[in-house]
Amino acid sequence: MDTALTALAITCTLKPSPADSSSDLLATQILDALADHGVTGDLVRAVDLAVKPGVETDMGDGDEWPAIREKVLGADILVLVTPTWMGQHSSVAQRVLERLDAELAETDAEGRPILFDKVAIAGIVGNEDGAHHIAAILFQSLNDVGYTIPAQASVYWNGEAMQGVDYKDLDETPEKVVETITTASRNAAHLARALKTSAYPAD
Predict the structure, then answer these.
(1) Residue 106 scores a pLDDT above 70
(2) How confident is the model at residue 1, as a pLDDT?
(3) How far apart (Å, rounded) are the C-alpha atoms in residues 157 and 128?
(4) Structural domains of the chain sorted by starting position, each given as residue range(s) with its CATH number in brackets
(5) Which residues have CB under 8 Å from 6's CB, separation 6+?
């Protein structure tokens, strides 16, 4: 644990602050678990900011993505958390993925994609099915732009379909979710530390 690590959680709830958010709750739980492995974390609720549509690092007048992007580039671990709507990730999550697409054109001093050596965790909450499908989309997109995915790094909770109980309404976190948070966080910290010590080669 000698190597200091940082994490950024981007939550993609459709609810602006100060509304309670199941996505924020799960992201906070993951950040707390990462802290047990020496990872300092920060959380951004994307819907609170004016993230313009587009696939550039800066979409100009009023775009607040560049401030989030600086945090993304500064973090060793990205925690991307989305609610489930109609079996899909949220429109906010899709916009975040589209803005990350710009990083395909960005390289470091050695000519490598700028997001190489960074690790990603996916979090999904919803009272309907779709978690595995959403995790597949998030992980493929994040891997495309350079993130490495740890073993068992998708953390999800599916409530009973067509019911009104959300993750934030539970009296306690289900044991299996706790176990998955623990595993995903441990593996992410291990992998991020390994990549920081021994980066991917430039060629």
Answers:
(1) yes
(2) 58
(3) 9
(4) 5-197 (3.40.50.360)
(5) 39, 40, 41, 42, 74, 75, 76, 77
Helices 175-197 & 22-35 angle (0-180, nearest 10)? 50
Residue recorded with tokens 């609170």: 48
Indicate the average pLDDT of the chain: 95
List alpha helices for 51-172, DSSP H.
Answer: 65-74, 91-100, 131-144
CA dist list (Å): 57 to 38, 43, 105, 163? 30, 20, 10, 39
| pTM as predicted | 0.96
List, for residues 144-178, the tens digit of each pLDDT value. 999 999 999 999 999 888 788 899 999 999 999 99
Q: Are the CB atoms for 39 and 68 separated by under 8 Å?
A: no
In contact, 69 and 51? CB cutoff 8 Å: no
Q: Name the amino acid, one letter, at 196.
A: K
Yes or no: say if 94 and 138 are a contact pair by the CB < 8 Å rule: no
